[in-house]
Write a structure and sequence with these properties.
A hairpin with a 2-residue loop joins strand 1 and strand 2. This protein is an alpha/beta fold. The strands form 2 sheets. Strands 1-2-3-5-7-10 form a 6-stranded mixed beta sheet, with helices on both faces. It has a 4-stranded mixed beta sheet with strand order 4-6-8-9. 48% of the residues lie in helices and 16% in strands. The longest helix is centred in the C-terminal third of the chain and has 18 residues. It is built from 11 helices and 10 strands. It folds into 2 domains: 192 residues, 2-enoyl-CoA Hydratase, Chain A, domain 1 (Alpha-Beta Complex); 50 residues.
């Protein structure tokens, strides 16, 4: 297929690959629209979505040349469009897995951090060049700061323009694992396949809970009560919990049971 985004469907999951290699997979208006359309098309179909890039770049952020042309013509809205893409990932019921194959700058770093899980290649390079433009990274900065890394680590990215590699990103907890380039997609695909074997409602409700604790709920009692409420919400929408308990009682393994990390 042609266009800025390649969508590959698999059983229960999908891969979205930014395909603007000549622009280091920087996202232009067409890319943003394609991502939103793909998210909607995969709603209720894919339980996991792998997001990656073509060639040696994951995503070099916003297409600044297009944005400058827009501004010269009095056209605004690119920033709001990009915010909408990232919020759509957070609100989507599928579990998003970033497969960081290379350069991830600015908006690319944002994508790494808004995805639920992330696997980086040893050739990954993550950074925020905005300070070189006398600019705070308006989306990448908050996403990095919400990712759970320390303030000093966030400051390194926001204030210096220095990039970190995949090994450092794993050490900081920004990505879940760092693997050799040839292992990146097989690793991400295996993870997506594993997640696709779980109940869609349980995944979606658990994803919501991950955002609520500790961002909105910080007390232990409130958090434990919320955990019970999450399971009640799952039971109200699907019989999967009862079916899983019945399988376990019958000596039949549930998906993921007995699998070592």
């Amino acid at each position: 297929m042609t266009g800025p985004l390649v969508v590959t469907r698999h059983a229960g999951w999908a891969e979205l690959r930014l395909d603007r290699e000549a622009r280091r997979n920087a996202v232009d208006r067409e890319s943003r629209q394609a991502l939103l359309q793909a998210f909607e098309a995969l709603r209720g179909e894919a339980r996991a979505i792998v997001l990656t890039g073509t060639g040696t770049s994951f995503c070099a952020g916003m297409d600044l040349k297009e944005r400058e042309r827009d501004r010269e013509q009095g056209i605004e809205g690119a920033g709001e469009e990009w915010i909408a893409v990232n919020l759509a990932i957070r609100a989507h019921p599928a579990i998003f897995i970033a497969a960081v194959n290379g350069l991830a700058l600015g908006g690319g770093a944002t994508l790494v951090n808004v995805c639920d899980l992330a696997i980086a290649s040893t050739s990954a390079s993550i950074g925020c060049p905005e300070m070189g433009f006398s600019t705070y990274p308006g989306m990448a900065g908050p996403a990095i700061q919400l990712s759970g890394i320390t303030r000093k680590q966030a400051a390194w990215l926001v204030l210096t323009t220095n990039r970190i590699d995949g090994v450092t990103a794993e050490r900081w907890g920004m990505v879940n694992a760092c693997v050799a380039p040839e292992q990146l997609l097989p690793h991400a695909h295996a993870l997506a396949t594993q997640i696709a074997g779980f109940d869609a409602v349980a995944l979606a409700e658990s994803k919501k809970a991950l955002d609520r604790i500790p961002a909105g709920i910080t007390g232990w009692r409130e958090a434990m009560d919320h955990g019970q409420a999450v399971n009640a919400a799952i039971r109200a929408q699907t019989t999967a919990q009862d079916e899983g308990s019945a399988r376990f009682a019958a000596g039949v393994k549930n998906p993921g049971q007995g699998i070592a990390s």
